[in-house]
Every structure is written in structure tokens, then in C-alpha cells.
């Protein structure tokens, strides 16, 4: 099966890139392995796609219909870091990319990097600074502070905690389906 593991540190967590540009995803291993697999999960197509396996010797094995000029893996000098370079970015490259190692008949996945490709990058929002006030600041004594209903009031945190619990419960079926999809992919890879 698949499982995420602390043996793999993947950065960055999110990338927003422009069409026809290039990007890089880094995967650092806690210990040396025979090599690293790279996969892409497509939310739109609801599938995992095997992209490339890079061995510790530097040999690359590509998945079916994968453009070898588009996906290139660079290996670090100590065989514990690998970076996936993706060039000629297109909207079809959108998805979550995972580095992975094989250990005890399991594929251990990194934390994932979400890549979004857009035609035009959004402009950064202008931040406006509040005008400086010369009014003296009010200081609250402990008694005054405790009498005010602030962020610690049960009227605030009880509904907030309930909504977080409902949100977490709604994620359980999605996580279960994701696990089944990853297991199916692992079985398919090992049948080949």
C-alpha cells in the first residue's frame, strides 16, 4: 500500500506557475534508498500517474507516454536529495506531485506538492497601512480583561470546535477513497 512518511521531506508545499515556464520540486530522504519514484495525482482525472523513477546511480526510467524532456530528475551528491524539474508547463500539468521510495513492499510517499499552472499570474495585492494614531493606547487590567467577552468566550469557541469536528468527519470518506486509489495504483505498478 501507500503511506505518507516522515522519511521524505518534500518542498515546497504549493507552486503557482505561468504557462510555458518551468519549476522544481525537492525531495529529501532521511536515509539513502535505491532511488525515488515521482507520481502526479490529478483531481480532475481522479488518477495517479507514474512519471519517472530515478535510481541512486542516476538512471531514469519513465512511465508510459511521459515526455523525457519535460520531466528531469537531478540527484544530490549524497543520494539523499532528488529534485524533479518540470519544463514547458501547461494546464494539463496541474495536480499534486509526490516523491516516493519503496520500503518493505510499500511505497512511502512524501507530503505532496500542489502545482497550479495559469496563463497569467495574479498581481500581488497592494497592502495599505493604517494611518498612525497619536491616541494613547488603552491598557486593560486583569479584572477588566476577564470581564470582556473576547476570543476565549464559550460563545466563540464551542461553535468553532463543533464546525471543525464536522469538517474533520466529512474528510473521512475522501481519505478512505484516496487510500483505495493509491492501493490500486500500487498493485497495478507491481503487476507490471
Gist?
Keywords: Adaptive immunity, Disulfide bond, Glycoprotein, Immunity, Immunoglobulin domain, Membrane, Signal, Transmembrane, Transmembrane helix. The chain is of the alpha+beta class and 192 residues long.
Structural notes for this entry:
It is a single-pass type I membrane protein. By secondary structure, the protein is α+β, with helices and mostly antiparallel strands. It folds into two domains: 8-118, Immunoglobulins (Immunoglobulin-like, Sandwich), CATH 2.60.40.10; 157-191. It has helices at 142-147, 154-191; strands at residues 2-4, 8-11, 14-18, 23-29, 35-42, 47-55, 60-62, 71-75, 81-86, 95-103, 106-109, 113-118.
Q: What's the helix and strand layout?
A:
Layout: E1 2-4, E2 8-11, E3 14-18, E4 23-29, E5 35-42, E6 47-55, E7 60-62, E8 71-75, E9 81-86, E10 95-103, E11 106-109, E12 113-118, H1 142-147, H2 154-191
Parallel strand pairs: 1-11, 3-12
Antiparallel strand pairs: 2-4, 4-9, 5-6, 5-10, 6-7, 8-9, 10-11, 10-12
Q: What features would you highlight for this structure?
A:
Immunoglobulin-like; four-stranded antiparallel beta sheet; alpha+beta; single chain; 2 helices; 12 strands; 2 domains; eight-stranded mixed beta sheet; 192 residues
Averaged pLDDT: 78
Which residues form runs of ≥5 with pLDDT under 50?
135-151
The portion of residues forming beta strands comes to: 35-45%
Largest sheet: number of strands, sense, barrel closure: 8 strands, mixed
Tally of structural domains: 2
Radius of gyration: 23 Å
Structural class, please? alpha+beta
CATH superfamily of the largest domain: Immunoglobulins
What would CATH call the class of the largest domain? Answer: Mainly Beta
Helix content: 10-25%
Shape: globular
**Remind me, CATH topology of the largest domain?**
Immunoglobulin-like
Beta strands, count: 12
Helix count from the secondary structure assignment: 2
Amino acid at each position: 500500500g501507500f503511506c505518507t512518511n516522515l522519511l521524505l521531506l518534500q518542498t515546497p508545499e504549493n507552486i503557482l506557475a505561468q504557462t510555458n515556464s518551468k519549476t522544481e520540486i525537492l525531495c529529501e530522504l532521511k536515509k539513502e534508498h535505491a532511488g525515488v519514484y515521482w507520481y502526479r495525482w490529478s483531481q480532475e482525472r481522479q488518477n495517479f500517474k507514474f512519471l519517472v523513477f530515478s535510481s541512486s546511480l542516476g538512471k531514469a526510467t519513465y512511465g508510459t507516454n511521459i515526455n523525457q524532456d519535460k520531466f528531469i530528475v537531478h540527484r544530490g551528491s549524497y543520494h539523499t536529495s532528488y529534485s524533479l524539474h518540470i519544463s514547458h508547463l501547461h494546464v494539463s500539468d496541474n495536480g499534486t506531485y509526490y516523491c516516493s521510495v519503496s520500503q518493505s513492499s510499500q511505497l512511502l510517499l512524501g507530503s505532496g506538492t500542489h502545482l497550479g499552472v495559469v496563463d497569467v499570474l495574479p498581481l500581488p495585492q497592494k497592502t495599505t497601512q493604517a494611518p498612525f494614531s497619536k491616541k494613547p493606547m488603552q491598557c486593560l487590567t486583569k479584572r477588566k480583561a476577564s470581564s470582556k467577552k473576547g476570543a476565549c468566550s464559550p460563545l466563540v469557541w464551542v461553535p468553532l470546535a463543533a464546525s471543525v469536528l464536522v469538517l474533520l468527519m466529512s474528510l473521512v470518506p475522501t481519505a478512505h477513497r484516496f487510500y483505495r486509489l493509491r492501493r490500486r495504483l500500487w498493485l497495478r505498478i507491481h503487476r507490471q
